[in-house]
Amino acid sequence: MAVSGSGGSRADNGYSSQQPRRRKGPGALATAYLVIYNVVMTAGWLVIAVGLVRAYLAKGSYHSLYYSIEKPLKFFQTGALLEKYLLIAKYLPGIVPSSVVLTAFQVMSRVFLTWAVTHSVKEVQTEDSVLLFVVAWTITEIIRYSFYTFSLLNHLPYLIKWARYTLFIVLYPMGVSGELLTIYAALPFVRQSGLYSISLPNKYNFSFDYYTFLILVMISYIPIFPQLYFHMLHQRRKVLSHTEEHKKSE
């Protein structure tokens, strides 16, 4: 975390004579907490990036680098669940132009990939597709949390803003490709082991096929990915064009 649509006008709602209310930002204590949170998350993803580079230099190969950053990846990716409420739903909409649905979907899907697929299906941990989405996530999160930190401090460098709204053009398809290929690689092992599946009969009269569920998850990318991608392209045009106009007016 799908397309953030524009709301109706004030005139449509009978409030054309009133000024639109601005969303209140967090107070001083909340701001301090959010800054600390984002600094910690930025540092955490930097640790993952350094771990990947060191492991690659030591091994001389990019294969199976997942094991070198498995623990910090699980910790910091799961830590993003805090963001789902504290940062997205409550504070960030008033601070940065970010889609709540977009960021929430990304957080939940990445936690799902981390635990329900990569952690649960050990056989896929050596797949190169895992490295594909890990690298995409790592670069994206370093930029994103840096962006949030400087936005909270009201001192956002243009380079970070540009990176936030430009590098996703490559990183997002790269990450999605890695995620889909990893889920696809997990399917035979899930089917063979019956992982997380519940068969009838049972006392709850309920069945669940995790193999089918993963296929449905893969299919869900078809309508969701284009919406999220084009939303980000729209945000890029909106944010960066506004920045250029502001620079010209100075």
UniProtKB/TrEMBL annotation:
Pathway: Lipid metabolism; fatty acid biosynthesis
Membrane-spanning parts: 32-57, 91-118, 130-153, 165-190, 210-230
Compartments where found: Endoplasmic reticulum membrane; Membrane
GO CC annotation, single: endoplasmic reticulum membrane
Record-listed E.C. numbers: 4.2.1.134
Keyword Transmembrane helix included in the entry's annotation: yes
Entry's Gene Ontology molecular function annotations: very-long-chain (3R)-3-hydroxyacyl-CoA dehydratase activity
Topology with respect to the bilayer: Multi-pass membrane protein
Xref: InterPro entries: Tyr_Pase-like_PTPLA
Primary enzyme class: lyase
Catalysed reactions, semicolon-separated: (3R)-hydroxyhexadecanoyl-CoA = (2E)-hexadecenoyl-CoA + H2O; a very-long-chain (3R)-3-hydroxyacyl-CoA = a very-long-chain (2E)-enoyl-CoA + H2O
Gene Ontology biological process terms, A to Z: fatty acid elongation; sphingolipid biosynthetic process; very long-chain fatty acid biosynthetic process
Region feature Disordered, mapped onto this chain: 1-24
Annotated signal peptide: none
Keywords carried by this UniProt record: Endoplasmic reticulum, Fatty acid biosynthesis, Fatty acid metabolism, Lipid biosynthesis, Lipid metabolism, Lyase, Membrane, Transmembrane, Transmembrane helix
Function: Catalyzes the third of the four reactions of the long-chain fatty acids elongation cycle. This endoplasmic reticulum-bound enzymatic process, allows the addition of two carbons to the chain of long- and very long-chain fatty acids/VLCFAs per cycle. This enzyme catalyzes the dehydration of the 3-hydroxyacyl-CoA intermediate into trans-2,3-enoyl-CoA, within each cycle of fatty acid elongation. Thereby, it participates to the production of VLCFAs of different chain lengths that are involved in multiple biological processes as precursors of membrane lipids and lipid mediators.
Family according to the record: Belongs to the very long-chain fatty acids dehydratase HACD family.
PANTHER family: VERY-LONG-CHAIN (3R)-3-HYDROXYACYL-COA DEHYDRATASE, VERY-LONG-CHAIN (3R)-3-HYDROXYACYL-COA DEHYDRATASE 2
Name this polypeptide is given: Very-long-chain (3R)-3-hydroxyacyl-CoA dehydratase
Species of provenance: Eolophus roseicapilla (Galah cockatoo)
